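Q: For a teaching session next week I want to show students how multiple molecules come together into a single three-dimensional assembly. I've collected the sequence lines for a complex. Could you give me the predicted structure tokens for the whole thing so I can convert them for display?
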Amino acid sequence: MSKIAVLGYGVVGSGVVELFYKNKESILKKAGKDADIKYILDIRDFSDSPYSEKFTKDINDIVNDDEVTIVAECMGGATFAYDFVKACLLKGKNVSTSNKELVAKKGAELLAIAKEKNCNFFFEASVGGAIPIIRPLHKCLAANQITQIAGILNGTTNFILGKMINDSMDFSDALKMAQELGYAEKDPTADVEGHDACRKICILSSLITGKHIYPENVYTKGITEISLRDVKLAEKFGAAIKLIASVRKLDNGKIIPMVMPMLVQYESLISRVDDVFNAVMVCGDGIDRAMFYGRGAGKLPTASAVLGDVIEQLKTEGSGTDMAQTWVDCDNSEIVADYKENACRMYFRVTGGKDLMPAGSEIVENGDELVFVTEKMTFAESEKLEAAFTAAGAEVKAKLAVLDM
Amino acid sequence: MSKIAVLGYGVVGSGVVELFYKNKESILKKAGKDADIKYILDIRDFSDSPYSEKFTKDINDIVNDDEVTIVAECMGGATFAYDFVKACLLKGKNVSTSNKELVAKKGAELLAIAKEKNCNFFFEASVGGAIPIIRPLHKCLAANQITQIAGILNGTTNFILGKMINDSMDFSDALKMAQELGYAEKDPTADVEGHDACRKICILSSLITGKHIYPENVYTKGITEISLRDVKLAEKFGAAIKLIASVRKLDNGKIIPMVMPMLVQYESLISRVDDVFNAVMVCGDGIDRAMFYGRGAGKLPTASAVLGDVIEQLKTEGSGTDMAQTWVDCDNSEIVADYKENACRMYFRVTGGKDLMPAGSEIVENGDELVFVTEKMTFAESEKLEAAFTAAGAEVKAKLAVLDM
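A: Of course. Below is the structure for the complete assembly, covering every listed component.
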């Protein structure tokens, strides 16, 4: 019988325990073997819990117990979680995690240890919560060259933008509401500044390149500057403003990962993804495109993804490291191209300077302000255009890229 | 080095060969071993093909060649394909197929042989074309009890309905266009009568129950009776008419699989799935719901799914049968409940008999015809209501269920 340890009994960890025991019979049938949760690690007191005898405050109880072959890390952060996961992997224990910060910052190192110790470090829950995306990408779509990924990878900001779009709330009111509902944290920086989405696109970028892409090398812009006026103008243009995390492969093999609010036209299913839901569109040379949609966070949805990994580990333990779900460290300057090389149609809202509007642009509104969408141009060109407006005394009130997929 | 045989060099089979050689390097890297296509089976002459030396007209060349451990069946139909797949499995060869008719009719038998011979019979490509759905269902979502699946599983009918919705074409003109574009066959019965979607929902139903569900036990209705008038009235109600294949698990463990045109309200992403695309919404007790979207057919999309299976077989060959992707034969009367027990809101278009309209109904239009949507009722109740209208001298011009997910 395989023994499992759960690290952290917060929202996700308690969900893992709950869902495991709720569906234990069918889970073990699918795994094809017997298994149980032996330890739950948490520094808090859970003596009233029905699982009280499983709790420990000492990671060494788990690390040094050779019976434990599978560890589900649900603590979050990249300090204690990093130490604990590393210690477990060094003992050859399989680890699955929901911790995107850990994977985005330390993935290459932890994957290398897993390979050395002939075990697996899985992280399906780290991107898109419940949505199966990691395994489909490297298994089901393994025959494809993945050329582009773009999606909504942060539910909190999607909720906020949804309130702006559907209920005409401004950003700060929508953020307050998200905080009241528990969707946004007291310090909402990681969500609204795009850092959370950035970690997730780093993980997907690493997976499709086989090289660790670090968050600091990803152009990242959040939604704090999005005004209700631009939300309404986007609507007039036939688009919704969404926080899009994306990565594009260039012909030279380099990639451009980025996170930014973009106009997504209604023809794209991504524009229809509402509330706290996530969605990831994947383009490949075989599939054309496919989209994966679901709950990007939450207790049982995230637990479902962690347990999916655990079941896979139960089925495959002892048969070595899955090398398709891995990547190596690398000098990011050799693989990440400057985001300014990326090309999109661009939405501008300016005061004056109409003669500077490029030929071929589509005018959305021409009143006190001139609002238009250009033909495709590079971000470098868009910044030159912005500078030209400014030099001519016109103010660029907003500039947003348009997602074409 | 593993040797692969491709059965059938039609649209899908030639796509498998093309995509394999296009991405051979990355495919073998992901598989972690060397492999090549040794045989292509087709009765036609391909002596001008760059792969001419691989062609054979004799299945025994493949069956009796012990070097061949993996077979990709892309012939279609359940006669020759059945004999050939069975012969390969009996020799312990792993088979992957895009053939939904074969899986829906003979899955239990072929899976039993695979189990006996310690190999795998995979069929990711048989449902949703390029869309990863089979593997995500039984791997990534393995911790869930799947409670409901509903989706668009036939691209041809979705194209036809799309032309009716967006371009106000009537059914026969839209069908003609689909035939001209090669989306519909000369004899369109399997698509427009729902048989193709039925086979696919049988496969998904079998996967979530572990019991083979046969097509003849699935209530199936196609789109031939859908009128442009109902398409327009659905729009007024805020819904699109889509051909929905669905299965619902009841509390007593039985299931209700069915295929029928339904009103899908715009709030549901499924209503936004256009053109020949497919989408599958899955509900589970962990994930809440997730949706998978992509191309449901076509040369390279389907080939991508077949090769995803082949890569998995390359990675795992020799390690036994994956028991999570299997089911056994059963008496369907013990597991399939009468569709009449299913409950939905119901759309009615009637001439007269207004006093028979149930309380709580929403009136869509009240002119020469009375058009309304009821509160939730069973199909049995809806048939009683239909009979009551008829008895009162009113004609029921249309009756359609509303999808609630």
